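Sat 14:20. Reprocessing the chain from the morning session after the first attempt stalled halfway. Input below, unchanged.
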Amino acid sequence: MSEEVITTRRGAALVITINRESRRNALNEAVAGAIVSALDVAEAAADIRAIVLTGAGEKAFCAGGDLKPNADGTPFTIEAADPRHYVARLLRRMDACRLPIVARVNGHALAGGFGLVCACDLVVARDDALLGVTEVKVGLFPMMILPYLMRVLPYRRLMELCLTGETIAAGSGEAAAIVNYAVPAAELDARTDWLLARLVDKSPTGIRLGKQSLAKIREMSTDAALEYAQFMLANMARTEDAREGFAAFAEKRPPVWTGR
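Finished this time. Tokens:
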């Protein structure tokens, strides 16, 4: 794994940290590839129940693509003969991840960094962290992250952010649709741990199949979604975790999850 991304355990969670503090944790090909690899490792480990994505230091979660001239692995080029962009690969992998991904926004999340935040399932942020898409200020537009911005933001607010390049504070009222919890910097870890504790004691199977279903249903018509959902619900009810959940409820005891 690249030294630009480090992983640590936090109880039942795997913490993935973009370790490019001197470059404001900017995204390049090595970083994207290492995050994908870390997601693979997390999903393969039976004792990992959640993932935290964060940045090194206290200034930036991720400042987007590396704008430094001739930066290694810049996201602003693509191989014409093999157009499989690594940012698209990373976002698809995050989409497909069946573990909940929590963004721990330790600093500003801008451009592609804001896209990463929107691609996560839950968000805990410093209340003074700035969020936004600033690409228009350098003659670009937030292309590949648009599908994720559109899932989270109302259309007209999204257009204003994209066309003006302005930012919003994570602790402001208008960020309520983006951020689950915005807290002072000193409380960021405590709030993240509190949220993780509410995730990792739940059924791994229920979460895994639920995330898988949500990813499919989001792209379906209402009728197709209902058709799919009825079979998924019946399938989930046959899992060991569901049977254990029903039994624990009836016996008034905490469930013991197997993840099967």
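DSSP finds nine helices and ten strands in the chain.
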